[in-house]
What we know:
139 residues; alpha+beta; 3 strands
Amino acid sequence: xxxxxxxxxxxxxxxxxxxxxxxxxxxxxxxxxxxxxxxxxxxxxxxxxxxxxxxxxxxxxxxxxxxxxxxxxxxxxxxxxxxxxxxxxxxxxxxxxxxxxxxxxxxxxxxxxxxxxxxxxxxxxxxxxxxxxxxxxxx
Length: 139
């Protein structure tokens, strides 16, 4: 369970770094304050073919009217300030790490062998039942 949770967290952090460093833009086309088209990596299609050419200016906005359409662009810039990890080791660090891992590994070396010195011997035979002989019973 712990290994599975660690994998989920590492995948989640990987996607977080990916989305934080990726840049994209979305282009949206609105007509009469209603979203008509959206494009993530390109230009949104306009409704030029539906535009009604009218000589009389009207205050009402209808779908396809000339001045009711507008384009909006949303851009998310990628973050390039990700700090790369650098590790600088000196000879003292190597000595410390070597001695630490050596003592940690050898600490549990003898625990795998469970030596029992009397494993080949039988227990002594009980000739008389002492509890019955002395009439001492647990209640």
